[in-house]
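Reopening this ticket.

The earlier resolution said the output was attached, but the attachment link was broken on my side. Pasting everything inline this time so it's all in one place.
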Amino acid sequence: MVKKIAAVKPAGMVTTQRELARMANVSMTTIYNVLHQPELVNPATLKAIRRIMDECDYSPDALAQAMVRGKSNIVGVMVPRFDIPYFANMVCRIERCISKRNYKCLMIQHDDDPDKAKEAIRVFRQYRADGIILRGCSRSSDGELAELAERYRLPFVLLDEIITGYERFTILPADFDDGRKAAEKLIAMGCRRIGYIGWYRADSNGLGPRFEGVAAALREHDLEFSADLYCKTASEYNAGCAELKLLWRRNGSAPPDGIICSNTSTAVNVYCGLKELGIRVPEELKLLGFGGLQNQAVPESQNILTVRHDIDRIAGCACDTLVDIIEHGRLPQRAVMVPSVM
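Inline output:
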C-alpha cells in the first residue's frame, strides 16, 4: 500500500530520484523499480508515483541511467541526407521497427562528408548509443568509419554498401541480380541499345554491382555495351541531366532506346534532360531507375520504370541484426542481400 504522499511541487520542480522518493514517501529502491522494473512494484504504488512524475514533469536523466545500467536503449542511425526520399523512408521505417524493440533513435546526416561521419560516430559514443545503423559516404575511406565504431566497441550494421573486412555486417539490395533483371526488363520491352548512367563511389572508377548486372545481361543477349553507352554521374543523387547530354553526343548517329539509372533521383534528372532534347518517355525511349521512390514534383516521372527496393525488409533486417548483436552477442555470418521488386 502507498504511504501518505507529501504535497506535490509545481510542474518542473522535481529533478532527482531522491527528491521524487521523498515526495512519494518511498525508498530509492522503489523509485528505481518504477523506472526500470515496474512489474516488481505494487500496481497502486506504481500508479501513484507515476501520477507524481506527471504532475511534476519529472524526466529521468537518460545518460545517468545509461551509466548505471550500462545500456541506453538508444540506437544511432546515420545516412547521407534526410531530404533524399530513399533515406527519408529508410530512417522512418528503421525508427518504427526499432521502437518495437524498446529502443529510441538518434539520427544524424553526414552529407557525404567523411569527417562529419566520423564526428557522428563520436556523438553516438558520447550519448552512449548501444549500437549504430550506418550508411557511409560512398568512398573507399568508409572502412575507417567501421574501424572507428569497432574501436569504440559500438555494435554496428552497414546499409547499402560492402566494406572490405566487414562484409557480413551489411544489409543491402541484391544489386547485381537487380541490374540483370532491369536489363532483361528493357530487353523484353524491345530495347536493343541500352545505356547506363549512374554512381558507385566518389573515389572509384567503377560503377558497381548494379552496372555489372546490367552488363552481364546485355552480354548474354549479344547486345552492344561499349564505353560510349555508359557514364558515371558527378554525384550520387543530384546529377544525370548533363551526363545524359554527354551520352547523346557520343551516340548521335545511334542513340540508345533505353537507359538504366543507378537510382530514381538520377532517373528523374535524366528524364528532365530527355524532355529538353525532345525525346518522349516511354514512347521513344524506356527509362528505368533503382529505388522506387520518384519525385512527385515531376508528374511525368510516373513514366519512369523502377526496380523498387524492399525498404521495409531492409530496415527490418538491419534492426533485427543489430539487436541480436547488442542483446545476445550474435554476430552475423554473412551479408544479407534483399531482392527488389520489378
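Reporter confirms the inline version is readable. Residues 4-12 have pLDDT under 50 and may be disordered. The two ends are 62 Å apart (CA to CA).
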